[in-house]
């Protein structure tokens, strides 16, 4: 099917970008992965592409400090964004990443969907609200992806889904379907591949 066709040629690292003028040409469909530091963005990209070491994942929050572009086949880019809400780097550094992140999310013409990753244990936090509001204003459709589903019990998961659903209802650019994932267990990965492969 579509997901198999898109993902079987494989993914490769293209480049890390530190300023808007370093962005690759916008001649491919693009999806990005946004979320608080340590939520599991890089790990999710590795799970989707089936390449463990492709995006650098780490226990150290703030690992991804650039906008990292990966080619997927010949038609798509996957984009790993620096985490937000991470205060433990020098302030000017944090401010530079945040400015770049905002400029990218607001101004990328070929960006078809932003996946906003939310930790299943923590739910939607103020910095997530900020990003979702920015995406509303920029008219970028975004979809919530709950990560680390393997870390929560079934009843807590339901509560979290309800909280996220309620928050999304306030955001005009939010796509209503929430994807529940575990990069560890492979849960939701095929669903997300299919979503990426069949974007309008
Ligand atoms: P930054 O680059 O710092 O913004 O973080 P990130 O969002 O890219 O997170 P990353 O993928 O580096 O993952 C952070 C930690 O969470 C790592 O130790 C991962 O192994 C762990 N992790 C990611 N996804 C899952 C998951 O589905 N289940 C579990 N149990 N752990 C996960
Ligand atoms: Mg990362």
TrEMBL record:
Gene3D superfamilies: P-loop containing nucleotide triphosphate hydrolases (3.40.50.300). InterPro entries: G_ENGB_dom (IPR030393), GTP-bd (IPR006073), GTP-bd_ribosome_bio_YsxC (IPR019987), P-loop_NTPase (IPR027417). The keyword Cell wall biogenesis/degradation does not apply. Its cofactor is Mg(2+). SUPFAM superfamilies: P-loop containing nucleoside triphosphate hydrolases (SSF52540). It holds the Pfam family MMR_HSR1. GO terms for molecular function: GTP binding; metal ion binding. Residues 27-200 form the EngB-type G domain. The keyword S-adenosyl-L-methionine does not apply. One of its GO terms (cellular component) is cytosol. Keywords: Cell cycle, Cell division, GTP-binding, Magnesium, Metal-binding, Nucleotide-binding, Septation. Belongs to the TRAFAC class TrmE-Era-EngA-EngB-Septin-like GTPase superfamily. EngB GTPase family. Necessary for normal cell division and for the maintenance of normal septation. This is Probable GTP-binding protein EngB. It comes from Roseivivax halodurans JCM 10272.
């Amino acid at each position: 099917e579509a997901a198999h066709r898109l993902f079987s040629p494989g993914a490769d690292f293209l480049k890390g970008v530190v300023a808007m003028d370093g962005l690759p040409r916008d001649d491919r469909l693009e999806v990005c992965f946004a979320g608080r530091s340590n939520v599991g963005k890089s790990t999710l990209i590795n799970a989707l592409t089936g390449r463990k070491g492709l995006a650098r994942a780490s226990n150290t929050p703030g690992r991804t400090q650039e906008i990292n572009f990966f080619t997927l086949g010949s038609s798509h880019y996957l984009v790993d964004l620096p985490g937000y809400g991470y205060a433990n780097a020098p302030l000017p550094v944090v401010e530079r990443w945040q400015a770049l992140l905002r400029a990218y999310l607001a101004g990328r013409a070929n960006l078809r969907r932003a996946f906003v990753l939310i930790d299943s244990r923590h739910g939607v936090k103020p910095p997530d609200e900020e990003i979702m509001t920015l995406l509303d204003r920029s008219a970028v459709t975004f979809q919530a992806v709950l990560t680390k589903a393997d870390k929560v019990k079934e009843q807590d998961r339901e509560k979290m889904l309800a909280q996220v659903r309620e928050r999304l209802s306030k955001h005009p650019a939010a796509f209503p379907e929430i994807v529940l994932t575990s990069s560890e267990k492979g849960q939701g990965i095929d669903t997300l591949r299919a979503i990426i492969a069949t974007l309008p």
